[in-house]
Structure prediction request, 686 residues.
Amino acid sequence: MGIAATIENPTKPEDAGLNDLVALVADGMSRVNSTILSRTGSDVAMIPEVANHLIASGGKRLRPILTLACAQLCGYVDVGGRDGDVKLAASVEFMHTATLLHDDVVDESDMRRGRVAARIKWGNEASVLVGDFLLGQAFRMMVEVGSLRALDILSAAATVIAEGEVMQLSAAKNLETDEKAYLAVIRGKTAELFAAACEVGPVIAGRSEAEQAAARSYGMNLGIAFQLIDDALDYGGTSAALGKNVGDDFREGKITLPIVLAYRRGSEEERAFWRRTLQHGEIGGDDLAAALACLQRHGALEETVARARHYGEQATAALAIFPDGPVKSALLDAVEFCIARAH
Amino acid sequence: MGIAATIENPTKPEDAGLNDLVALVADGMSRVNSTILSRTGSDVAMIPEVANHLIASGGKRLRPILTLACAQLCGYVDVGGRDGDVKLAASVEFMHTATLLHDDVVDESDMRRGRVAARIKWGNEASVLVGDFLLGQAFRMMVEVGSLRALDILSAAATVIAEGEVMQLSAAKNLETDEKAYLAVIRGKTAELFAAACEVGPVIAGRSEAEQAAARSYGMNLGIAFQLIDDALDYGGTSAALGKNVGDDFREGKITLPIVLAYRRGSEEERAFWRRTLQHGEIGGDDLAAALACLQRHGALEETVARARHYGEQATAALAIFPDGPVKSALLDAVEFCIARAH
Prediction:
């Protein structure tokens, strides 16, 4: 087995809105965490070291939680202790972790989840290769589960995520990006994995295509809402208090929805400002404050949150075909939680 | 479907030793090439551009040829035109191409297959993401074939390849690497995919475990022999005439078997030379010539070729359980071809 990574408890006070969901899947998540530990083990010591650096630093584990919850919502029964839901949930988290490791190389990030990025500590090469290792392990676990339909969904998601990331690359620093193009990017890079994570639940529970499509739609819309709120939060959200890390997207020249909206609505002078800062990367000490003022002037953050609320409503509506009960309630709360982060 | 890549004819005169094998699988390979074209298509224009840059530049396509040949050897019949052998062969080539794209980022290579590396033309980020896209497409095709056993073999190969590459990273510039450690690296980074490419042939033909194991052993040993000859060729092989690209491994500080052998057998002065050039990267104008002289003095290249011949013999022996015929003969010739490249 070799060396294994260790996992800290990822629960944070600001994630309290997810408490019901977390409690409902607690048993499964403890098996997901053990699976993650054992599947990052390797005799090649650098693999668990790098994987552990990122996995142990937490995150909410929202994606595997969604897989377990959607399987539970659909009455999945683990015949013979084969841990189908747990292995698919762990696969989803590995796919997400692999994406983060590769993203760091793509973005040349210095930080990730409040820690120095793996690529700074071990080099780009380790981030690329350990990401590949985790992707391989994800597919091995899916194969063990033995559902060709689940394999189909998750392998298609892997290509769509990569396409979304390449699209983002092509759109980078391009202020001509419109809302439609931006939505195509976040559907790929973020929402597709949420959608796949949810869809495989009814699939392994053997439920109808209508229920599979409903779970997929819930995940897709939730994922879009989640990313839009992230984009708003990067400029402090709609609250007056500014948290840490405000302005990361600005400094990296990322064109997100708040920028798309403010640029469209901006005066010629404001557009010149966005071109100088985001397109040419000439950012001075007062520019973040000026950017925030401009976003505020055009209501760009409120508008972004309103768009997120719209997608959240579609996520909520998608769950209508499932019977009421504690899991459905908790999944509905998760939508509220994602939106409420903005305040 | 979007934009698709184009494929040039990859046949080169020096590959004539493979002619029988190439002729036997010609129909299948033409379907593999069409599949590669259609599966690199994407509405995101950068994806076929980058994929095409590498795929169209050729290479012998040895791995997919092996998949088709091993399926044919085992009497695979394509029921209902589902192209199981063709899709698995294309998957194997995509896995190989993804590895090359990611390797370029890892090695910081400037050139690949005689062309400027994709990462130089489009950046590290494009190499990482298009590699991920191809890996996702590879798994989608495997899922379409529907053999869980083939999926198991190829997903396991994906993790073993990544482990081998990380091992190589840990061993880089480390002159304490011994022959055993070096063989573990090349089993992972090269031979595992050869083994998997061969093993899936009898698998989709529904043949016995003994035949699956024999095909795997043929591929594994052929892969090791292939890599050892590559290592010798990087120092010009055993021929007096030096080809182009001689000394690439030397300039990159790669510890390959010729170096492992010469370092073990070297005088204190020679060891100091290897430490200065490979470990510390202090390479002057006369150092490649000095390195070649040192390798020659200790017979390191002949010895490397002798090791390759040993693995080649094991590959040949593994085919004994299959009935004689044109495919088996051509697979035996392929072993000879791999070894003969060194002269």
